[in-house]
Amino acid sequence: MSKQIYLFSTSFHPDVISVNSLDITLLKPSINFCDYDYLIITSKQAVRALQQYDTTTFIDKRALCISEVTAASFEEIDGTVLEVGSGYGDDLHKSVSQYPKKTKWLYLRAKKVASNFVETLTHEGYCIDEEIVYESKCSDEMKNIEIEDNAVLVFTSPSSINCFLQNNQISLTNNVVVIGTTTGKSLPPGLTFNIAKENTIESCITLAKSL
After folding, report:
1. Is the N end or the C end of the chain the one with fewer CB atoms within 10 Å?
2. Who's near 147: CB < 8 A, 6+ residues apart?
3. What tens digit of pLDDT does each residue of 49-107 get?
4. How much is the pTM?
5. In terms of domains, do 17 and 30 share one?
6. Side-chain half-sphere of 65: how many Cα atoms within 13 Å?
7. pLDDT > 90 fraction of the chain, expressed in percent and rounded
8. Domain residues for 61?
9. How far apart are CA 164 and CA 156, in angstroms?
10. What's the number of domains the chain is made of?
11. In this structure, are 49 and 104 located in the same domain?
12. Are 119 and 195 in a shared domain?
């Protein structure tokens, strides 16, 4: 008998029990996009926030996107991708450092972020401004979920883990799959987990089905 798979994410997958982990509130700070050469986008939520602005003010700004999924979201609103990262925030340091330090970047971010790559790059002399364009809180769904024994739990962000652990515990009978190493670091110390081969939900689900 196959194990039940739970996906804790803001995205849905038809093959598993999808639990919305976060409620997102979009923000709209005043931004003069003309001041910047490129954008940095690390989530689909940031792309959603961009859609609140007049498209003509930002559409000529190419974006460094953290992953293929984020890049696809940006292209769906007719944006042009500058470069696609490996899926990890810390790896964006390598991408930005390939450009001259005088290059002006705008990082469209969440209120809380897991990676400190901007702080590191700024300390090294790169020009990166940050604008908080959305914030998140744990969803009510995370408070009321009941997990079967021997189930596979799939987490796609540190926030999804933190929200889960506020009201639930991970049983020793559960297998855990995470989307990447940064997410894995948010799990309780000593807990065994599996990392997806690619930084995508589809890769997570494929791995979960094999356990």
Report:
1. N
2. 6, 153, 168, 171, 174
3. 999 999 999 999 999 999 888 999 999 999 999 999 877 677 889 999 999 999 999 99
4. 0.81
5. no
6. 24
7. 74
8. 25-137
9. 12
10. 2
11. yes
12. no
